[in-house]
Amino acid sequence: KVRCAPGIAATGLAQDNRRRSHALPMTPTAAPATQPAAGSLAPFVRVLGIAGLGCLALITLVSPASTRMFAFPWSLALAVAVATPALMLALRAFDSRQPLILPPRGWGLLAHATAAVILASALVSPHRGASLLWSAPLLASLAVFFLVYDWLHRAPSNRARVVTGLGWTFAAIVVVSLALWLADLPGRSLDSIAGARNPFPLGHSSYTGALALLALPCFVALGLQAARPVSFAWSALVVLALAMLVTSASRGALIGLGPLAVAALIFAPFDRKRKLLLGGSFLLLGLALALAHPRTRAMFQPTDPAAPPNLSNVQRSAMLDAGRRMGADRPLLGWGPGTVPLVYPRYRAALAGGADTVLQLHCTPAQLWAEFGLAGVACAVAFVSLAARGKGRDPTAAAALAGYAVFSLTDWQLDVPIFGFSLAAFAALLAPDPVCHLLNDKFETRFRRFIGGAALVACVVVAALGRRDPTPELNVRALTLGRDVAQAEAAIALLRESLALNPDQELAHFNLGWLLVTRDPPKAENYFRAAAQLVPDKGGVYFGLGLARLNQGRRDQAARAFALECLNDPRFLSSPWWLEPGIAELRDATRTEFTHLGAQAARSLEAGSWPAAQLTRVLASAPTLGAVPPEPPKMFTRQRAGYPVLMRNLDLPPPLDLYVVREATLTAGAPLPAKGWLPSPLLLQLLDARRAD
Which residues lie closer than 8 Å to 690 by C-beta, 6 or more apart? Predict the structure, then answer.
């Protein structure tokens, strides 16, 4: 027999379809309201929802939220925020008194397929425990989609309530962001203020710019609908959101304003002339916003050929290259959600530059390809297609998703709950009304129970098998013990255990080399070479390699390694390490090798490029190799401040390398390029190449 979704009559749907072309975009006809029946699970769902929203607010507004949520007790709030949507969905699915309203078949199948891809990708990942743990925010976002859709179609007024709720959520974020931004300015110089970027409250300016993009359509829509004086408050929030976007200095967010403005023009109820005037105003406003911050203003300035490459552009290019390689190696399901920081290092040596490792690839398509393979990319394409078809149902949601879709080409943020949950709510606004199915009650009930069971199974799998990556804790313990000579063997054992779990860790290889450089020089040499293969421009790695060779009596090869250290990090030319007798004896041999390595590098560099120009300056400093200034030297160990964030475990302290850096205090002369100025593949080429006399 013919059955419709709960609370919706077939005749009502037919009437709604006839009226839709005349309905206001923000308030399409909704289903009749349904009251919770006696014995319904709705009260339990409501309690869970309040708890989840409270925890979501904590991990969104308490700056720096996106990194703080990796530390206890904030990690508990993160766990509650991502677990409650799945539990709420399970309760709704098993509520026979007030049945769950499901989206049309296409949307429902896509959501189920996406959840299956996420779980399958995590389960087959080489880093299964960590990957399952970081599949939770994505799975929770899918649950939010079902919950919001269900609630939308239980009362005619709920659609407006969803948009209003999103508006109030974004308003809180905007106010907190600008308040923290202004509180951080006193005491700064004018130049510092002009160039500063707003990272509040999530901890990074890219998050700030993206939140402004999502907030603007809601503020505009609510301002147009509200009566005075409430409309003035929403209009003020539009201005504040634009200020938030400008202070973020996010180039991606600025570009995302373009499609957002286009969507606004398409849905605006104006004639062609007024739309042209409005479009011109948007263009002038966008130009003004771009010129308001030095970072975005630089987009319009010509590039100086003699200037060093833009570090941000170099790193982003390297990330895209790494993402392409990662997906090509596991094309079906990728490496698993959240695994980029663990897998990126194995591709680092082949990249032209960039960071040692990264939290994400700063490009959503690249992230999907790397972590979820073809299956994940297909799900994303299907979602974009369905959202494009439903763009007319809710212009606010369509504009927000259009702007964010373009912005997502420059960042990946779906692992941060506020973004995944917001996009899920916008998607629910675009999904069509429930439709009639030729299904019997028994089948519908079983299908809802399947959804509830799947949500519970996902919770159990993530809770039972998901765990933090154990290697960071092993590494930090080892480096703490390694500073005590009596505990060195225990430190060596811990680092070897860590490498057995994940061999792609430069930190473990590098520090094992320093622990063994006198105890077992041949093994130390192997560890230093392994570290160089992962991060070719690591400061100190070629010096350590040279010491390991020197301790084996291979003086010529030691001098070549010292020369490569000087080429990679020109500050080593005047390092106080040259005052050590055993090293000082190799000054002349190192200087000769330095000249030969420079000549080999020159043949590989493009003539007229910035690295080629710097090479000329560096090679001109060859006569000063080993000349240490008389000023007191700087001695320190390098701290890996970003390591806990990259490993998503802020309960660990930032580790300190065992290598003691000795640098001269330079007081005169133009500074030479910093470590990493040569392309990584070239450094490895020089490491393995034989000397050509």
Answer: none
Q: Is 437 helix (H, G, I), strand (E, B) or coil?
A: strand
Q: Which residues of 73-106 are buried (b: 16+ CB within 10 A; e: fewer)?
A: ebbebbbbbbbbbbbbbbbbbbbeebbbbbbbee
The token pair at 691 is 């000397």
Query: Residue 498 and residue 417: Cα distance in Å, rounded?
Result: 30
156 prior amide bond cis, ω within 30: no
Q: How far is CA 211 from CA 206, 550, 581, in A?
A: 9, 55, 58
DSSP label at residue 662: E
Cβ(408)–Cβ(420) under 8 Å?
no
Residue 656, classed as helix, strand or coil, is strand
The number of residues in the chain equals: 693
Alpha-helical runs (H) found in 431-487: 441-465, 471-481
What is the distance between the alpha carbons of residues 434 and 106, in angstroms, rounded to a whole number?
11
| Residue 294, number of CB atoms within 10 A of its CB | 13
The pLDDT averaged over each successive group of 10 residues in the chain (693 residues) is 43 37 38 54 89 96 95 96 96 91 92 97 97 98 97 92 96 98 91 88 96 97 92 96 95 93 85 85 87 81 68 88 97 98 94 86 97 98 95 93 96 97 98 68 79 95 96 97 96 98 97 97 98 95 98 96 96 94 96 95 88 92 91 91 95 96 75 88 88 51
Taking the mean position of all CA atoms in its chain, how far away is CA 105? 32
Question: H-helix or E-strand containing 663?
Answer: strand 656-663
Residue given tokens 């203020």 in the structure block: 193
Residue spans of alpha helices (H) in 124-157: 128-133, 136-152
- The widest CA-to-CA distance across the chain, in whole angstroms, is 94
In angstroms, rounded to a whole number, what is the distance separating the alpha carbons of residues 321 and 306? 25
How far apart are the C-alpha atoms of 552 and 386, rounded to whole Å? Answer: 65
Neighbour-count burial for 658-675, b at 16+ CB within 10 Å, e otherwise: bbebbbbeeeeeeebbee
Q: Which two tokens stand for residue 194?
A: 């002009």
Rounded Cα gap, residues 340 and 229, in angstroms: 48
Q: Which of these, 291, 177, 157, 304, lies nearest to 241 by C-alpha position?
A: 177
DSSP bridge pairs for 636 = 661
ω into 472 cis (within 30 of 0):
no
Both tokens of 215, joined, read: 């907030």
Q: How many helices (H) and strands (E) does the chain have?
A: 32, 2
How far apart (Å, rounded) are the C-alpha atoms in residues 112 and 115? 5
State whether residue 304 is helix, strand or coil: coil
Task: Quote the CA–CA distance of 208 and 184 in Å, as a whole number.
Answer: 15
Provide the angle, in degrees to the nearest 10, between the axes of the packed helices 136-152 and 441-465: 150
